[in-house]
Design goal:
Helix content is 26%, strand content 25%. It is an alpha/beta fold and 399 residues long. The chain has two domains: 12-112, 2-Layer Sandwich (Alpha-Beta Plaits); 128-393, Rossmann fold. One of its GO terms (biological process) is proteolysis.
Amino acid sequence: MGVFRFISISLAAVSAANAAQILSMPHAQTVPNSYIVMMKDDTSDDDFNHHQSWLQSTHTHNITRRATIQNAGMRHKYNFSKMKGYSGIFDEETIKDIAKDPKVMFVEPDTIISVHGKVEQSNVPSWGLARISNPQPGAGSYIYDSSAGEGITVYSVDTGVDVNHEDFEGRAIWGSNQVNDGDDRDGSGHGTHTSGTMVGKEFGIAKKAKLVAVKVLGNDGSGPTSGIVAGINWSVEHARQNGGTKKAVMNMSLGGSSSSALNRAAAQAVEQGMFLSVAAGNDNQDAQSSSPASEPSVCTVGSSAEDDSRSSFSNWGPAIDLFAPGSNIISARPGGGSQSMSGTSMAAPHVAGLAAYLMALEGISGGAVCDRLKELGTSSITDAGPGTPTNVLINNGGA
């Protein structure tokens, strides 16, 4: 069902006096010996550079002495807005040394984020586009303003995108591969499908918006949190240099265990002016236990079915901002053509696409977009789930 695993965790600090927290994630699938290190907000560039130089020396000393870990060292460096940090493969003694630096905020084990369990059906009616531009279910047309997201750039932080698919009309480009697998394509199909919903000529909402593919999950639909944080970092910097963050949308149809590092990165992207649409997850449980869905500043999206009920798989709870079509959604398939998938993975790009559409039409940006989507939506969802503060289904206001 286009679904992906969301695993709840508890965070326990194990640190020495005056040392940074080393967060424990006992219920998460972790990457062996891989960690994410976040620096405090007041860390200057000079402090950060000094820390990196110290780290290289300390880690080299520890590894030389023990020689227990292969391919060790720093992998990703993060530096945008107030957020500075890095990830890498380190031995236990080096991690303890890192935590003693007073400029370190916390150290977090690197965990696996994933998408999985796709459902493909033939001859399924494409209903999502029609539903978001009509006040009642059952309509057969998508009504929209001809501006159609022009001038807005959408970042697909996902499994990659078939940027040559005919539905993108040359408006999609390859941006970055944080998986570092040397495979700049979408071997999963997930990222191409979500991107088609956002900007495709036939399947999409913002039919004139541009799209940038940011691959953070492998062809098996999974990847480490460290790479996703790097993808967010890359997207923010790319947006700043190409039209500005206030004309940028990011879609994240992914999730996993609660992660302070991932939530912090998502929050910094929003602070920089980007709009973030995030899938709530597909475990029929409280979305508050997963990241980045639990980050308050993003727009967290639950899934609706064709009859305006909450999809049976959709997560619920206080983190939910909106609902959008997510059951049996037809969109682009790598290599050409289309396929049907279900999940909050499919709901989030409806919100991202509509956000791009409204940003072009009304000139709004950032956090104001989620509020505007709530204003335009219809109170249609039945059984929104325990503790869910909204039953609003997105709508474009009838163009």
